[in-house]
Request: fold
Amino acid sequence: MDYTEKALRRVNTFHGIIVDVETDMVRLSNDQITMREVVRHPGGVCVAALDADGRVAMVRQFRYPFQTHLWELPAGKLEPGEEPFPAAQRELSEETGLEAGRWTELGAMYTSPGFSTERLYLYLAEDLRQGEAHPDPNEFLDVARVPLAELLERVDSGELQDAKTVVGLLRTAHLRGIDFPGSV
Amino acid sequence: MDYTEKALRRVNTFHGIIVDVETDMVRLSNDQITMREVVRHPGGVCVAALDADGRVAMVRQFRYPFQTHLWELPAGKLEPGEEPFPAAQRELSEETGLEAGRWTELGAMYTSPGFSTERLYLYLAEDLRQGEAHPDPNEFLDVARVPLAELLERVDSGELQDAKTVVGLLRTAHLRGIDFPGSV
Reply:
């Protein structure tokens, strides 16, 4: 069935630093009128960097929305006009100092398609070379390399709950034929 | 390291229908001042309902932010004061008409911890009984039961990109010992 909703009029707009929010009056497929709210986000990238010893680079940051530190895969927003692949290379290098000789696409994901335009592009980076990290001036993070098998156990135990991190790790394990969770 | 960021002053607030947005001036761990933006979302639930034939209930809706129809696991927002488990039972029943005799927690996930408070609680529902669906008046959706093995292939091909759907399906497959992708 076609449930397309037709925008009639924008009734509110918020311009933020990371996101904009638009509230539209829309006509539903049954001709009823309702409101739809859209959080506009530039989208981003997320990288699972897997080294020759089966370890994955993880970063730990303070996440203001949850007022806690979280371990996640390296990730970041797209700059205006930036394509996902160079953004992935840039973010991995900035946050961890890693450069990779081999890149594999792990697909894209919608984080919250009911209300947000955010779309993340996931990559697997291998054949790693360690350089200098150079995070943004207002970005503070710890970096660690953790065995993929151990990270998969942390997904299974519920310790890792970040969506992009869970999807990136599970897809990496699948692509490289590693049991989840378990022995590498 | 402790990278806790301390709120100094709220400089902007947006009250929307689904989300609120708050812009705070904060003190970073190096004593520098910057701005943090938080999208406040009530959180929600997502249900993988697996029937005795190895099929999972999927719903197809128009998703206004992407102006397209998407197939996803049944899901929905928490009502004010509502606990995740009753919300999961409610949403599954509203969207698909299904009631389940057996519920298993699949853990929680942060959809976008960098800027959003949204947290989703995932469940596996089994021992299903088909009743009448009763979606919200402004909610239009198609429901189908699809073999889990086929859904895992669609995750692998990149056809299914919704984060909660990918995580819910992969965790269900893992919990029930089903290869990804492949033969049930």
User: Anything to note?
Assistant: The radius of gyration of chain A is 19 Å. Helices of chain A lie at 84-96, 148-157, 163-175. Chain A touches chain B through 66 residues (CB under 8 Å). DSSP finds three helices and ten strands in chain A.
